[in-house]
Structure formats: structure tokens, C-alpha cells
Amino acid sequence: MKIGVVSRSDSEDKKSSPSVFVSNIIERLPEYGIETTKIRGTSNSLKSFDIVWDPFVSSGRTPSCILDNEHIPSVVTVHGSGPHSLSLRNRIGKRSIGIKGNIRLYINYLKWVYKWVKNIDCIVTVSGYAKKDISKNLSLPPNMVRVIYHGVDDSLFSPEGSKKYDDRYYLHVSSGSPPKNIRRIVEAYESIDKHRRPKLFIVCNKELSLGSVDGVEVIGGGIEHEKLAPYYRGAMALLLPSTKETFGLPILEAMACGCPVVTSCRAACPEVAAPAALFAEPTSVEDIASCMEEILQNKVRREEMGRRGARVAKNWDWDIAARKYSLVFKNIL
User: Which domains, from first to last, does the chain contain?
Assistant: First the structure.
């Protein structure tokens, strides 16, 4: 079987979770007799492929126009509904969207309802929460959406190995987008006595302007994925209390490294992290700070969370994810 995999220039940052997901699936598909070729733009002929897969649908975008070229079975992976999940008032209030952005979103919504639902053979998403999110906000029939969870590479992420720093520190790893809740994390950090609190390292794919906060160090531009494990292993806790998260790959990678996790009680975070994490209300700085204090003061619980997280992470496997994708591809032919 030959599959054309849609490649998007803005989604191939090797530090991003979608890129990590795609590379892990593509690497394993040959074990199931599936050959993949990346395709981009509208110039590629699709006649040599049995299926076209667009794995990068998120943030309110629609599937690639490549799928318009010829009639061919197609699968898309939708990572979330993005701005479609916001109320109209909140969308208009966001400078990044505005009136023109809302018009584009509405056009995209109509394309989902009247075009893509009819043309796509299967929609895959990354969590039960994400399935509810896109089914509701993009008006997709729930029986059309299948959940295939991400995995973790235990050859990279495990409790055994080097640590980045010997000193104690909190860690945040993300794309740096607003739902990652970085400003509330910093506010919660500032509320802890500066003579007791460890450092806070913020690793994100974009440059941030947080002002000067004693103890906070921003590593903008991100870190290569295969180099993250030492940061996780040495951290007192990963802090990822996102306001919205359709999966949260850093949660899984941190747990696999034996790193305690403080995350959100909302969205997909409990789906991924339970029963190994501390859960905070993401809109409450006080709640986030309380969890950080618990990590700081309770060594016994911190160590138990690390051990439990490592055990839970063993249930999440890229091999399982790749096998399920192979079945999706074979079943639609």
C-alpha cells in the first residue's frame, strides 16, 4: 500500500508535537506493509497513491487542497477545533482573529459541513476530549471520528539517563501559545517565597516577553525533541496547566522520564495524566501555586508521583498508534 502524506511547511518544525507524532507514525508504518511519500502543493499526481493522509489539520484550518485534485480515498488527523471553540464574543475580542478572521473561520466551518464531511473517508483525532471538541464545534458526526492516542518513545524518554541540571527546578515545555497558560504559571511561581522556590525553566518554540522575574529563565526557540529528556529527568515537576489541551505530549514524555506533573483538571489533561499527576484549575493562579507548593514541600509524594507516572507512561506506545493507523488505512480501501 502506498500513502501520500500531506506535508505543510508551517507544521514541520521538528520541535512541535504534531511533527513528532507524524515522524513516529511514518517510521513504523513499513512494518505493516505501508509505504509513505510526503507530498506538498497541488503539483503532485495522486494516481500512484492508494490513500492520501493529511495529518496536520488544526487551529481552525481545513484539510489540504491536495485532497481536491483527484478522487482518492482520504484520511485526515484533526488535532482540535482551535478558534472554532471560542465564543463569537471572545473571537472578535482577540486581535489575532478580528472580523476578517471570523469571516475566514465561518467559511472554513461551512467547508467542513458541506464539503469535507462528504469527501473524507475517515477523520482521526488524538483524544476523547478532542473528539467531543471537533464533533461539536465543526458539526462532525461522532461516528465519523476515531480516536488514536499518541505514544512515547521509551528509547528517548525513560527515568534512566543524564540530567540537565543538578539543582532543583520547575519546568514548562510547550509551543508557547496562549492556552499553555504561561503567564499564570509565572504569577503562581512569583507567589512562592523567593528564598525557597527553585528556578523555573520555560522551554517554548517562540520567544516570550515576560519581563524580569527572579528565578525564571526562558529558553525560546525550543529544544530539539531528542534533547528534552535530560530536562525532564532533573525537574521537580513539569508545569502544564493548560486552559485547552487536546492531548499534551510533554505530559506523557515527562511521566516517562519519572518527572512529576502538575497539569490542568480540564480538557484532555486528566485523560492523559490520571492517576499520576496533580490537577489544578487552570484559571486559578492560587490553585496552580498550591500544586507547586505541594511538589516543593512533599518529597515523599513527589517521588511517588514520579514512579507512578513512569508506570502509567508505559501504556502509551507509538507502535500501538501506528498499528491502529495501519488498520484505518487498510479498512477504507
Answer: 2-151+317-331 (3.40.50.2000), 169-313 (3.40.50.2000)
